Amino acid sequence: MTDEQYMQQALVEAQKAFEKEEVPVGAVIVMNNRIIARAHNQVELLNDSTAHAEILAITTAFNFLSSKYLPEATLYVTLEPCLMCSGALYWSKIGRIVYGAADEKNGYRKCCGSNNPFHPKTVLQGGISAIECAKLMKDFFKARR
Fold first, then answer.
1. Of the four listed, 3, 21, 81, 112, which is most buried by Cβ atoms within 10 Å?
2. How far apart (Å, rounded) are the C-alpha atoms in residues 129 and 47?
3. Which residue is catalytic, options 13, 22, 54, 80?
4. DSSP labels for 58-82?
5. Are 52 and 74 in contact (CB under 8 A)?
6. Catalytic residue flag (residue 104)
7. pTM of the predicted model, to two decimals?
8. Number of neighbouring beta carbons within 10 Å of residue 140
């Protein structure tokens, strides 16, 4: 599968969050061309401000692999990770992060600028299916105004 196809799977997760009135962020983790974890935001459901899609996905991947590191894995997430998620991803040593839409308000770049908060070996790529990812976020917040 391509990056765009895996991002479509992350968008399926984001749509689940949208339908549950959670901020619509979805994530999948891929290793050896296989999805090993799926998650979407569950902040409201769990009453836990740390229940972001990325955190839930890496926890699922750790459990699946019985490992605390993910150097061979790729995270596909519909929104640029926040600083909290960036820290968790740093410690996971994830091999690659692919995100969809930029997040000027809460993304890691707001705090870090051009400094990379991820593990030095992590490869980062943004903008995959960005328009579709951003539209879901805009639709969500527009419906709540």
1. 81
2. 29
3. 54
4. HHHHHHHHT-S--TT-EEEEEE--B
5. no
6. no
7. 0.95
8. 17
